[in-house]
Amino acid sequence: MIKCQDISYSYDGIHTDLDELSYSINQGEWLGIIGPNGSGKSTFLNILCGLFKPSKGNVMLDGEFVTNMSNKQIAKKIAVLSQQNSYTYSYEVKETVKLGRLAHSNSFFPSWSTIDETAVNNAMMMTGTEKMEKSFINEISGGERQRVFLAQCFAQETPYIFLDEPSNHLDLMHTIKILDVLKELQKQENKTIVTVFHDLNLASLYCDRLLGLKDGKIYIEGNTDSVLSEDLLKGLYDTSFQILDNPETNKKVIIYKSNVL
Ligand SMILES: Nc1ncnc2c1ncn2[C@@H]1O[C@H](COP(=O)(O)OP(=O)(O)OP(=O)(O)O)[C@@H](O)[C@H]1O
Predict the structure, then answer these.
(1) Could you tell me which residues come within 8 angstroms of residue 239 by beta carbon, excluding any fewer than 6 positions away?
(2) In terms of residue numbers, what domain contains 138?
(3) Has the ipTM of the complex gone over 0.95?
(4) What is the mean pLDDT of the chain?
(5) Is 241 within the bounds of a domain?
(6) How far is the CA of 86 from the centre of ligand 1 (A)?
(7) Ligand 1, residues 8, 10, 11: which to mutate, most atoms within 8 A of Cβ?
(8) Residue 104: pLDDT above 90?
């Protein structure tokens, strides 16, 4: 379980980018974080996993203060896909996925076990990256690279998986394939998933609960169906939506509305 209490964050020490946010994420649930650009979604995610230290408040991960945990201790618990993954090096795809196993090595020069090899191969199968294992990551497409970084997260085999816009650059088939893999991991291995979503239909389909941020504060939160209401979404995004029920899936369908058509 992750519990954060009164966390605030400022990038420049002047403006408040997250404002006294308190929230809990339960074991085994899929939380979607939604909200307009600049509302604090990525900042919140980075604080939850210890990448950013809050200027105020604290985060507890399974009963321990994140700020008291080493990077390796956190990496054994949380795999993170950031919005912008850097690849200033030109590693091969499989070498890049293997970096996900560093969290589990106990020495500076880690030995490679069959457990590591299996984890990497499974992660590459899950993401459909196995056929490009010898390609260099600076010589593949944006969507292929996104799947490589997702594979790196899966290879880390952590109980928590945090993904900032996982469908970035992915075509529709790969979007569904990856999100289905995550749903299976949640159901079968009780993993806790936290994803930032801009596509509200994906949030509707996959998330158990939604947290809507606006101006660095919690604007709405609750189970997915209760958050996906026309009034609440209009207030969150300052634009209108139509919401229908899909009788086949029992999920809400969000119809985007143009202001000029
Ligand atoms: N590196 C930075 N330096 C200064 N301010 C930043 C930095 N990164 C983000 N901010 C500011 O912090 C606030 C929250 O940004 P954040 O990236 O968390 O928003 P977001 O909800 O993830 O946005 P998006 O949907 O555009 O990805 C914004 O006002 C943004 O301008």
Answers:
(1) 257, 259
(2) 2-256
(3) yes
(4) 93
(5) yes
(6) 18
(7) 11
(8) no
